[in-house]
Write a structure and sequence with these properties.
Helix content: over 70%
Shape: globular
Number of domains: 1
Structural class: mainly alpha
Number of helices: 6
CATH class: Mainly Alpha
Largest sheet: 2 strands, antiparallel
Strand order of the largest sheet: 1-2
CATH topology: Four Helix Bundle (Hemerythrin (Met), subunit A)
CATH architecture: Up-down Bundle
Number of strands: 2
Radius of gyration: 19 Å
Oligomer: single chain
Strand content: under 5%
Length: 218
């Protein structure tokens, strides 16, 4: 299907998927600058005079804008699809895939970029948040496997409130954590949101297993 022939919700889903490789490139530039000193990023804010270093780079700003834009398209395409009753096989398949690619790829990149450890004094919360962020990724793989098994028996997989709560905390949490180097309060707030997202993901994953366990083949 060509892009110009798609309906608007599917176009937004496709745009969201195209945001993912750009996020990866930005993280690579950010890492090259921070670890190897390659001049491919620029610190807009940098203050190491106090007990805590405050910094914000161009790559971080672009990441925040790009991720926020992609997250908004997730809300808009769902709203338009429901409002105008637009249903397509492409949307059913690619919309959840685009969400998972965006969120999970960004989480992996943040872990690789040590964005969960930019300030001292919150090591325990950072560790907890890292564990639950990994749980988010594992949960998505687990739930997708359950869905594939259920589809073999034509079972309907209902959306749950836990999945919506996961998205509602993870997407803002990622935006906040991307800005965590600015201030320790912002950093801690981002960790809390990421941890809550992980908790909701875990609960949702357990509920999916309970609801779909009857469809799992021996």
């Amino acid at each position: 299907m060509k892009f110009k022939e798609m309906n608007l919700p599917n176009k937004l889903t496709t745009i969201r998927m195209f945001c993912v490789p750009f996020m990866v490139v930005l993280f690579v530039l950010f890492l090259l600058n921070n670890t190897l000193g390659v001049p491919c990023d620029y610190k807009v804010i940098y203050d190491a005079s106090g007990s805590l270093t405050t910094s914000l780079s161009v790559c971080q700003i672009v990441m925040v804008v790009l991720f926020a834009f992609a997250s908004i398209t997730d809300f808009v395409d769902g709203h338009l699809a429901r409002k105008h009753n637009i249903v397509s096989d492409y949307g059913k398949l690619m919309d959840p895939l685009a969400d998972k690619l965006l969120v999970n790829t960004t989480i992996i990149c943040m872990l690789a970029s040590s964005m969960y450890n930019v300030h001292n004094g919150a090591e325990v919360l950072s560790l907890i948040s890292i564990v639950f962020s990994i749980i988010v990724i594992a949960r998505d793989i687990f739930v997708d496997a359950l869905r594939m098994q259920a589809l073999k028996k034509n079972a309907v997989v209902p959306a749950t409130i836990w999945g919506k709560m996961k998205t509602a905390t993870l997407m803002p949490g990622i935006v906040v954590l991307l800005l965590g180097s600015l201030n320790v309060v912002i950093f801690i707030f981002g960790l809390v949101l990421m941890t809550l997202g992980g908790v909701f993901a875990l609960i949702g994953g357990i509920k999916y297993y309970i609801d779909l366990s009857k469809f799992i083949e021996d």
